[in-house]
Amino acid sequence: MKLVHTHRDQLNERLPYVDTVILPVCALAVQADDAPMGVDLLTVRRLGEIIEESLTGRVCLLPELAYGLFDIADHTETIESPVSVLADFIYHLLRGFQQRGMKYAVLLNGHEGNFTSLQLAGERLRTEGWKVLLSNWRIEHESEGFSEFQQWISGASSKNAAEKGEAYLRELGTRLIEDVISLWK
């Protein structure tokens, strides 16, 4: 269930079956001269969609949280918030979903700088009985297809690079789907 596309009657009908929330988190940052500031957002959005499409009926895909941070370096071009603020926001946001029956959280980290905030929020949620999957896709799954993916996401790609970029995300999505299913066990 993609929350932003769900109407009230659909929400009431589907919510009893949904126990997993997917929260894509990213930063708006200049990554390279030829890449848009939203490259992290576009990535976690697509990964979230791939997971939601495969696991429809049990998952709720939230809109991206696009004001993360870059706590591993000083980049003046990054729109960010402090680690504790982001961690508290994520924690309280997901606690609201716990009151509606959610007990699994998939935190899709689109930017390395968000890791500390997501880790802190995940730890707090775990103390309240949540099972949390924190995915650092760029660190955990970066592979040979990454350069084509970057070309595709920047809009400066050929049709071949676009196909390879989508294939790269589908491959990552498949791995993440397996991780989510493992979380449910």
From TrEMBL:
Presence of the UniProt keyword Zinc in the record: yes
Keyword Hydrolase: yes
Source taxon at top rank: Bacteria
Cofactor needs: Zn(2+)
Entry's Gene Ontology molecular function annotations: hydrolase activity, acting on carbon-nitrogen (but not peptide) bonds, in linear amides; metal ion binding
Keywords: Hydrolase, Metal-binding, Zinc
Cited InterPro entries: Creatininase-like_sf (IPR024087), Creatininase/forma_Hydrolase (IPR003785)
BP GO annotations: riboflavin biosynthetic process
SUPFAM superfamilies assigned to the protein according to its UniProt record, in alphabetical order: Creatininase
Annotated Pfam families: Creatininase (PF02633)
Family: Belongs to the creatininase superfamily.
Name of the featured protein: Creatinine amidohydrolase
Organism per entry: Collibacillus ludicampi
